[in-house]
Request: fold
Amino acid sequence: MVTSPTALTAQELELREQVRTFLVETLPWGTFEPGLGMGAAVNPLFSAALAEHGWVGMAVPARYGGRDATAVDRFVVVEELLRWGAPVGHHWVADRQIAPVLLRYGTEEQKRWLLPRICRGELCFCIGMSEPDAGSDLASVRTRGVRDGDGWRVSGVKVWTSNAMRADFMIALCRTGEGARHVGLSRFLIDMRSPGVTVKPIPYLNGSTDHFAEVVLDGVLVSDEMVIGEIGQGWTQNANELAFERSGPDRWISTFLLVQEFMREWPDLAASPAGSRLIGELAAQYWVLRRLSLAVARAIDAGGTPAAEAALIKEMGTRFEQDVVSALRELLDRELVCGLEPADTPSLFERLLGRAVLDSPSFTIRGGTNEVLRTVAVKGLS
Amino acid sequence: MSDNELYSLAEKLFAEHSRWQDVCDAEVTGWAENLWKALQQTGFSDVPVPEELGGAGGSVADAVQLLRAAGAHAAPVPLAEAGLVGGWLLASAGLALPKGVRTALPPAATLRLDGDRLFGTAPAVAWGHRAEYVVGLADGVVVLAPGPAAQSGGPTFSRGANLADEPRDTVIFDGVPVTARAAAPDEVTEQSFWERTALGRAALMAGAVSAVAAMTLRYSREREQFGRPIGRFQAVQAHLVTIHQQATVVASAIDGAAAAVELGRGGFEVACAKMLADRAAQLVTAAAHQTHGAIGMTKEYPLHYLTRRLWAWRDEAGAHHRWADRLGAALVAHGPDALYPAIQCGSEVVQ
Reply:
């Protein structure tokens, strides 16, 4: 079991300083609305500025436009961005998931075509996994790819797809063959501007139409060049990339800013016996989750695929993100009344708290529900 | 020797001399002579005391590995008190290790030196009644004094035990002449004494938690109900996941705390490690007993050797709130903008 990371090197600490300086200069605290972790705002200009420093797709080799950086380098950058509440939404999926997938399974052509654009922060991706009848039971997806000439005709419906309304591409899990449940699945890159693609917002529980969408794929023609890896290997690929997706700071840091801003806006309560006790307890949890998360990044750099550890971390990290919200609410114990517009609620803490209460159930659902993660994790126990 | 090799060696020693039957016997008699002898012969009881002071050398991380192995076997001896805590106190003041059984007087002891005579009461001294020597801190002076088991001139005592029937004796000094004394150096304070003590407990707890994890996983694969191993049920799998998550958490925490203490700091990390170990004790014992069902409640099945210790140890060396309050107050004093840097850099930012 991977548990303890070696300390950050001087170079890694220097990278952290550079990111901090960049954030203080381009995104001074108090001049923007910070987000809650990976659910932060979408801002293509910010993504482009970040990319100019080489901090998007940074683990991509230089010949494809990246920086040849390590998983730990990416950890260092992402940690700073998330704890600042920076608007990472535009490039988030491309950086975290698509770049590693293309590096691992993509063809040379796909890499040359897409990776440089990812590394410039240009591309926004969405993930086409869930369907009306396939949530946690992902192997039962019904979206089908049928051979048609030199390509594939893809038809089906993807739902609860984040950012589909603005994505350039979707990575879609589809059934392309018969046989056992976990075989015959393949992954396609689908250009969201293709004929036959229709995106309809699914209003989020707070009424926002800017988050979830239904994506109808009606006979969308996908060329062979857009197949990721081998036909029929979609399930295995999916399982292998989960170590990257599941163990990062985004799985435990989403509600950190609540604690920080609570301390700023409620200094007396924070200094009370109950307040400081809570802050001490939360700090211990953050400290150790960060250690474990960093240890997985180190293990990935050493060539490992610590998927079971990643599942253990995500399962407890996301619950912790929710616990932070509950604990602060209990400590505060007061009615939360928000203005109709953000500007009407002058307290950043209260705005964050309101959003966190509404959004936190999703923490233990997105990217694999905790119930499914537990069954994945148990298989890796020894 | 790497930490892994040291752990394997220690694990072998405890597997031989700290079998469940040995632990059971020691809970009745209050001592495990063969185990203690083996620890003395290998020098494990004298880690991390430098060799020139009669120790066996080694680092804080080495001592923590030994304690992890000891905790996994519920070893009924004052290993933490002899080495990581008591050995460190003596060595820090340049005092040589005495020959014989030694333990440490806990930081909660109220001790006073009058010339060469020691006064005061030390509560809950680990294996106090068996100690030929005791080590303590009295008004900034490191003191080596005869223990209750000394041939003559020792303090009086009354026996006590924790929930795991480990001796926790009250030792009373009414002018006992000390064997040796020396001023503690600057880095040895009441606080750093507490930290060493807590690190020792957290390391034992890490071992016990990992042993509970292994035992419970094995049981869940062997025990069949409704025609299949209980570990195939999702409700039971949730318990297994909780236990292994916590084992991972505590293992990582004691590594981080040991590394910081090695660097001469560790206020932040030790507080975190003890808090996390205390929380793990709660979650892990509950999940492990629930998985085992009634058999786990029997004397015959060895789960209790570990779970009773976890219940006792979580309250020792400063329980959860002591560490949470102290760390939280320090974090609040540094303000909101230092919170994340503290999480990243620990006692480099907040002690």
Observations:
- The longest strand of chain B covers residues 117-126.
- Chain B has two domains: 3-183, 190-348.
- Chain B touches chain A through 43 residues (CB under 8 Å).
- Residues 206 and 244 of chain B are 11 Å apart (CA to CA).
